[in-house]
Design brief:
heterodimer; A: mainly alpha; Formate dehydrogenase/DMSO reductase fold; two-stranded antiparallel ribbon; 6 strands; B: mainly alpha; 70% helix; 6% strand
Chain lengths: 382, 523
């Protein structure tokens, strides 16, 4: 029995849905990563640091589920991508996991003792838990754009020729810094709307301004690389969007500058990079005019724009291979079966609204700025 | 193929899974105990139950974060270390994992913050609702993980697609209502409830022995005794039994843990103790109880329990048939439209996995010698002595917990909280559920060997193409990180227990004296 929705459409929907999940992760947990990156710099005293930590304390865990869910959705909808990327980025993934493991522990255990040395150690652990994933995620995306050194054999088993150090090259470092700048801006603008006005608020605003400018510059440089930097892939010959998920049935080649093809073919896509610039600009205006909601809105729009730009530029590629372009994974050759994509869509349509409603309710209960006074008087706070 | 890489990958998975599962059972059980305690608070309005809930909630929190932290590793490890596995079965296996995130983990993680921070922001019933959502979320999480694991043990509702070189789902409902998964779910969450009950009972016993916080300890003792008795019965009675008669692989698991080398006339006897020897393919110094195994596993007097030797012979037949399927797949790789090959594949596809067992000995299974086929057939036997002993420890502890909670329940009912021998025992029993639970995991996963997916994909084919150095690096990294976190968590846990239920900042909770002890709502 064939599912009622076309295989081609389902593949497109799932490509977009995974994009939505990753953007959801960047929009929610992104400010947690940014906030803990800023922690040692914007907050000096223990009371200040507790205020910063408690601005994300009750919600970071729910936010992190977007990451877990992104991983799960890639596994379910794009098993090839899951299999190739996480084993290909093996040690980089380990670094991200180790850093992310420090985070929950840091939040919970920091407040269990009053010893300043103990607390300072956890502050730095939280910094690592924010900065390192932000950087490595960006570096990984940079490598996806230039292609990953993997090939698939006849049984579709993946082999790699890369190393951990090989992941760090000029373009990927640029992508890593852009990711840090984008998330630091997001963290700073979160602090702007979520904590009381005062010294910490002022410092966060200063960092926000620097990060916004860095975002704009790095994003522009990234575009320049994509245009003139000798990267890009193209599919040759005919594509069967309903075909079986087997990369050996598609012919892909390296084609310098091809990451800009889509904007000529579908001009509406230019909206994404425009948003990537407009967002940080709006955030800067928000900072200048002390309109914190505008600042947060701007940094959110910028995040949406920058991540969408990556996805749209590469379409239909998901994971191109630098050493064997014929093994490249695309939207048309790397998905789950028709049945699985359909079932997972039904499940998502049923459950995602519940997730969104419960998340909204939790945010509503916790609405309002966190103050130093609150943090001091409430034993439930971290 | 580098067997060291496979063994290291298995070691890493076992280490991280066993470690993760130190924290999960307590989360599963303690969350529901919190729901029970907080329900009593909401129904009676007595402040002491709020203090009780908040105290165990604090211990819950210390434990919960490590469950979450180490769970992140689990979600991504399949892709990192088991890349070919992820490709081969991701179409089926990925779905429950994604649904787990969407349905269960979201619930748990979104509400857990509010559970700790919402005491002042929410009404009593609203806070109880939040606590319940956390409990529901963590238990649903277990459901979906065990649907995934159950499918590895009993891969229903799917078939191999030669065009994509992987397993694909054809009946999702069968995956969902997999009887093995359902039995595993009940068994696992019940084990978690036992674990948490033992924990609460043990800590309460420590307070009672020292005469500290007795009003709180007695109430906690009573709740844990009742919940623990029900759960310990559930673990054993609704145990892992139901799946063992389903397929040859499940039968092999049963035969291995019973060290039953040959089929016996029905109903087969159960071996209580003995020394299984792999070399002799026999069990020395066996002490057997007649009939019992046949009765338990087939629920009849006439059902036959198949022995290891007979199952190995059947595996040999599967391998020969699997070679036909393998041959057909190779032909289809050359020519997608080869109809004869397609037919050949359809006839033998259910045995394809058995041919893959030969890849251990020969690059192309079709070139295998009869000796290699016989060898591969014997590979389908898991490690019998390990299975035999691990099962006996786990099952023995299971029966012990029933007796333990029965005594606790009687003591709580007659309000005898001063039996020092029992209180001391309760203290020493605290680590035992973890032993039983970790052994249960070992039994399930060692029992599945040599398969990653029973009858479908051998474990040694599932690993990623990594180097030994890479895996050693992550093993060392995880061991260091996890080791440090374990030390910190145990210290914080002990400090919180020593400090006791009342936080310095708590608005003078009514302590309750021993005289007004009343486990039931007094309204």
């Amino acid at each position: 029995m064939a599912p009622p929705i076309d295989y081609e459409i389902l593949r497109l929907i799932w490509w977009a849905l995974v994009g939505v999940l990753l953007i959801g992760f960047a929009l929610t947990d992104g400010y947690d990563l940014g906030t803990t990156t800023l922690l040692p710099f914007v907050a000096k005293t223990d009371a200040e640091r507790r205020m910063v930590i408690n601005s994300i304390g009750p919600t970071w865990e729910g936010n992190q589920v977007w990451f877990i869910l992104g991983g799960g959705a890639i596994f379910a909808a794009w098993p090839f991508v899951y299999a190739v990327s996480f084993s290909g980025f093996y040690l980089a993934m380990f670094i991200i996991l180790a850093a992310l493991i420090l985070r929950p522990v840091g939040f919970k255990y920091r407040s269990k003792r009053t010893d300043p040395a103990w607390r300072s150690r956890w502050d730095w652990a939280l910094f690592i838990g924010g900065f390192v994933p932000a950087l490595v995620f960006g570096v990984a995306v940079g490598n996806v754009l230039t292609g990953i050194p993997f090939r698939l054999d006849g049984d579709l088993r993946a082999f790699y020729e890369g190393s951990l150090l090989g992941l760090f090259h000029p373009f990927s470092l640029l992508a890593g810094l852009l990711s840090v700048a984008m998330l630091v801006l997001h963290g700073a603008s979160w602090l702007a709307i979520k904590i009381e006005h005062g010294a910490v608020h002022d410092r966060a605003t200063r960092f926000g301004r620097i990060a916004a400018i860095a975002s704009i510059v790095l994003f522009a440089l990234g575009g320049l690389f994509a245009w003139k930097g000798g990267m890009g892939f193209r599919v040759e010959g005919t594509i069967d969007p309903h075909g079986p998920s087997n990369p050996h049935f598609t012919q892909s080649v390296l084609a310098s500058g091809a990451w800009l093809d889509n904007y000529a073919r579908h001009p509406w896509m230019i909206l994404a990079p425009l948003l990537g610039f407009l967002g940080p600009v709006l955030a800067l205006i928000g900072i200048g005019k002390r309109k914190e909601v505008l600042e947060f809105g701007g940094s959110s729009l910028g995040t949406v724009g920058i991540i969408s730009t990556v996805g749209l530029s590469m379409f239909p590629f998901i994971l191109p291979s630098s050493i064997d372009p014929g093994s490249s994974l695309t939207v048309w050759n790397a998905s789950s079966s028709h049945v699985t994509l359909f079932i997972m869509l039904v499940v998502t349509v049923l459950l995602l609204p519940i997730v969104l409603i419960s998340t909204a309710w939790v945010y509503k209960v916790l609405f309002g700025r966190v103050t130093m006074e609150q943090v001091g008087g409430n034993p439930d706070f971290y | 193929m580098d067997m060291a890489v496979i063994e290291l990958s298995r070691l890493q998975f076992a280490l991280t899974a066993l470690y993760h599962f130190l924290f999960v059972p307590l989360t599963l059980g303690l969350s529901f105990l919190l729901v029970i305690m907080e329900s009593i608070y909401v129904m009676t309005g007595r402040e002491i139950w709020r203090t009780i809930t908040r105290f165990w909630g604090k211990l819950f929190g210390i434990n919960f974060v490590l469950g979450v932290a180490t769970g992140i590793t689990m979600e991504f490890q399949f892709g990192m270390n088991w890349s070919y596995y992820s490709h081969y079965v991701g179409d089926i296996f990925g779905a429950p994992l994604a649904i787990e995130g969407l349905m269960a983990f979201f619930l748990e993680a979104t509400f857990v913050g509010l559970m700790f921070f919402g005491w002042d922001k929410l009404s009593k019933p609203a806070h109880l609702f939040v606590t319940f959502m956390v409990a529901l979320g963590s238990n649903l999480s277990a459901l979906w993980i065990l649907v995934a694991n159950g499918w590895m043990q009993h891969p229903v509702g799917s078939r191999f697609n030669p065009e994509t070189m992987r397993m694909e789902v054809n009946d999702f409902m069968a995956v969902l209502f997999n009887p093995v998964a359902q039995a595993k779910f009940v068994h696992t969450v019940s084990a978690g409830y036992v674990c948490a009950s033992v924990f609460v009972l043990g800590v309460s016993a420590w307070y009672l022995l020292r005469g500290k916080w007795t009003a709180i300890a007695k109430r906690s003792f009573t709740v844990a005794a009742a919940f623990g008795l029900a759960s310990s019965l559930s673990v054993v009675v609704l145990g892992d039994e139901s799946g063992y008669a389903l397929t040859d692989n499940q039968k092999m698991k049963l035969a291995a843990l019973e060290a039953m080398w040959h089929t016996e006339p029905a109903p087969a006897g159960i071996t209580v103790i003995g020394f299984p020897s792999v070399a002799d393919r026999t069990t020395h110094f066996e002490v057997k109880l007649p009939w019992l195994l046949g009765l338990i596993s087939t629920r009849s007097l006439t059902g036959e329990v198949t022995g290891i030797e007979e199952l190995v012979q059947k595996a040999g037949v599967h391998i020969v048939s699997g070679l036909e399927a393998y041959d057909a797949v190779e032909k289809l790789k050359e020519n997608r439209t080869d109809m004869a090959a397609r037919e050949q594949f359809e006839r033998h596809k259910s045995d394809l996995g058995y041919a893959l067992l030969l890849k251990r000995y020969v690059e192309d299974p079709r070139a295998a010698t009869p000796r290699q086929i016989a060898q591969a057939a014997w590979d389908t036997v898991p490690n019998v002595p390990v299975m035999f002993w691990v099962f006996r420890v786990m099952a023995g502890l299971g029966f012990f917990f029933i007796a333990f909670f029965a005594v606790a329940f009687v003591l709580a009912t007659v309000r005898r909280f001063d039996s020092r021998p029992f209180l001391k025992t309760a203290l020493w029993v605290i680590p035992l559920p973890w032993v039983a639970i970790e052994f249960g995991w070992l039994l399930a996963e060692i029992g599945r060997q040599p398969w990653a997916i029973d009858g479908v994909l051998p474990t040694f084919l599932g690993a990623s193409s990594l180097t030994r150095t890479q895996i050693w690096t992550t093993i060392a990294g995880f061991t260091l990180l996890y080791g440090a976190l374990a030390v910190i968590e145990v210290r914080l846990m002990l400090a919180a227990i020593r400090k006791g239920p009342v936080d310095d900042h708590d608005p003078s909770p009514e302590q309750g004296s021993d005289d007004d002890y009343a486990p039931l709502p007094a309204q």
